[in-house]
Amino acid sequence: EKGARQISLTVSHRSTLSIMRLADYVAKRSQTTDGRPGKAPLWYKMNSEDSAVREAIGWLRRVTERYPNAITAVLCKSLTEARYLYGLLEPTFGSMVNLGDNDMFTFDEGILVTSIKLAKGLEFFNVLVWNPSAQDFPPIDAARNLLYVGLTRAEEHLALVTYGEPTALLPSVNSKLVRGMEEQIETEDEDS
């Protein structure tokens, strides 16, 4: 049409620059240089599943209180893991948490627990990636790509919660790419 002009998008993602830099690290791509500013993703590196669940619940409470009209996604490696985690979150969050599986997928405000594969192509304001472990995400291309997809579903806030041995695809918990919160192992005093 007369007067119409074409523009080119210079940024092809909605995630913040800090989220994209972590995703680029995982994908072994050159670091993204353009994008919206944002805080580095949080990484809660815990020693046990109980501690990991406690931290996940705390983070989910904070973001759902601060952003009550947003959908917060909890992304798991598999639907089996998503169903299990949903069972752990439901007593705390009640009807605010929904399971997204092949039979039922809702975009109601609150918390959506699903697999990374089912979330592919979707974006959420807040995303928690649940336990990207060394066992579930070995250093192979398929696992690297799946974790990249999980990380880049987050538009604004990204948290990772791990327990046990995390995947080698992630940087150190002390890296500048993440805000690492590492649980310390408590030791008994030798004098007791």
Report on the structure:
The protein has helices at residues 17-27, 49-66, 79-93, 116-119, 141-151, and strands at 42-46, 71-76, 97-99, 110-115, 124-130, 154-163, 179-182. β5, α5 and β6 form a beta-alpha-beta unit. It is α/β, with parallel strands linked by helices. The chain is built from 5 helices and 7 strands, in the order αβαβαββαβαββ. The model is unreliable at 7-12 (pLDDT under 50). The protein is globular and about 75 Å long. Strands 3-4-2-5-6-1-7 form a 7-stranded parallel sheet. The longest helix is centred in the first third of the chain and has 18 residues, at 49-66. α1 runs antiparallel to α5.
Can you give me a brief rundown of this structure?
The protein has 192 residues and is α/β, with parallel strands linked by helices. The protein is built from five helices and seven strands, in the order αβαβαββαβαββ.
Structural class category: alpha/beta
The percent range for helix content is: 25-40%
Question: What does the average pLDDT come to?
Answer: 91
Instruction: Compute the number of helices.
Output: 5
Biggest sheet, strands in spatial order? 3-4-2-5-6-1-7
Beta-strand content bin: 15-25%
Summarize the main sheet. Answer: 7 strands, parallel
Low-confidence stretches: 7-12
Sketch the topology as an H/E string, one letter per element: HEHEHEEHEHEE
Topology (SSEs and partners):
Blueprint (H helix, E strand, L loop, with lengths): L16 H11 L14 E5 L2 H18 L4 E6 L2 H15 L3 E3 L10 E6 H4 L4 E7 L10 H11 L2 E10 L15 E4 L10
Parallel strand pairs: 1-6, 1-7, 2-4, 2-5, 3-4, 5-6
Helix pairs in contact: 1-5
